[in-house]
Write a structure and sequence with these properties.
The longest helix has 17 residues. By secondary structure, the chain is of the alpha/beta class. The radius of gyration is 17 Å and the shape is globular. The protein has a single domain, classed as L-arginine/glycine Amidinotransferase, Chain A. The strands form 5 sheets. The protein has a 3-stranded mixed beta sheet, with helices on one face. A 3-stranded mixed beta sheet has the order 3-4-5, with helices on both faces. Strands 6-7-8 form a 3-stranded mixed beta sheet, with helices on both faces. Strand 13, helix 7 and strand 14 form a beta-alpha-beta unit. Bound molecules: arginine. The site of arginine (ARG) has 16 residues, from loops.
Length: 266
């Protein structure tokens, strides 16, 4: 597994673009760095092929590399950020992905799409979220660019503004998800399309438990995932819970800090 992270050097809550962010709440920068390093070291220990991006001053959310793009078969669809505050990241992510040899595709500027934050593969089907950061109209464009089938899911709770805050594919047949974060039709669609679903109560998902990274038979997530230890163990997964308090102040957890780079058929 290859994962792109971005150092938290310039991370902070400097504006409010989701309900978790409050500029008056202080971020403990040293603690954020330690939490990020613990995730980095956990990945390293588990044998992940890590790529670490250089952060850019003035782009405090660049640490959330999941939002850079979505990648499939060494092709990347670059994000077109919904909020002006994050649009400055786009040229940096494009340059980085091109330098790594990815074929980078772009979407029309007028449409919003926030990368792997709103686009997650279950097998070779791409489940895409819409409702807050990503426009429904981009789903087909992303699917066409990557030559994959897409499934559109409607997000309905502003706390779960990116699909990766409430939906996590664990393998080709299993998804961890919070049905209350999706419209009833979308939740039903997940249950119909995915052979095995582990349903998470919204209160547990609000601890960023679904914002997780599966690595073989392990699931790396925030501490709240410890509440899911039983259903995860029953499905054959060991839970690794890490403290993510400082990134949660920005509306992010483990998965937001991680962009899988080697998705695809290979
Ligand atoms: N503060 C960031 C934002 O609101 C958090 C991004 C979280 N990323 C994610 N993949 N869910 O854009």
């Amino acid at each position: 597994m290859a994962i792109l992270m971005c150092r938290p050097d310039f991370f902070g809550v400097e504006y409010e673009i989701n309900p978790w962010m409050h500029v008056q709440v202080e971020v403990d920068h040293d603690l954020a760095t330690r939490q990020w390093e613990a995730l980095h070291d956990t990945y390293q220990r588990l044998g992940v092929d890590l790529d670490v991006a250089e952060p850019v001053q003035g782009l405090p959310d660049m640490v959330f590399s999941a939002n850079a793009a979505v990648v499939w078969n060494r092709r990347a669809v670059l994000s077109s950020f919904h909020h002006a505050q994050r649009q400055g990241e786009e040229p940096h992510w494009r340059a980085l992905l091109e330098a790594r040899g990815f074929e980078v595709r772009e979407l029309p500027r007028a449409l919003s799409f926030e990368g792997a934050g709103d686009a997650l593969f279950v097998g070779d089907r791409l489940f895409c979220g819409h409702g807050f950061r990503t426009d429904l109209a981009t789903h087909k464009m992303v699917g066409d660019a990557l030559e994959v089938e897409t499934v559109s899911l409607e997000l309905v709770d502003p706390r779960f503004y990116h699909l990766d805050t409430c939906f996590c594919p664990l393998n080709d047949r299993t998804v961890l998800f919070a049905p209350d974060a999706l419209s009833p039709d979308s939740a039903a669609l997940v249950r119909r399309l995915v052979p095995h679903v582990i349903q998470v109560p919204a209160e547990v998902a609000a601890g960023f438990a679904c914002n997780a990274m599966p690595l073989g038979d392990r699931v790396v997530s925030s501490l709240a995932a410890c509440k899911l230890q039983e259903p995860l163990a029953a499905a054959g997964f060991e839970t690794i819970g890490l403290p993510m308090s400082e990134f949660m102040k920005s509306g992010g957890g483990v998965r937001c800090l991680s962009l899988p780079l080697d998705t695809g058929r290979s």
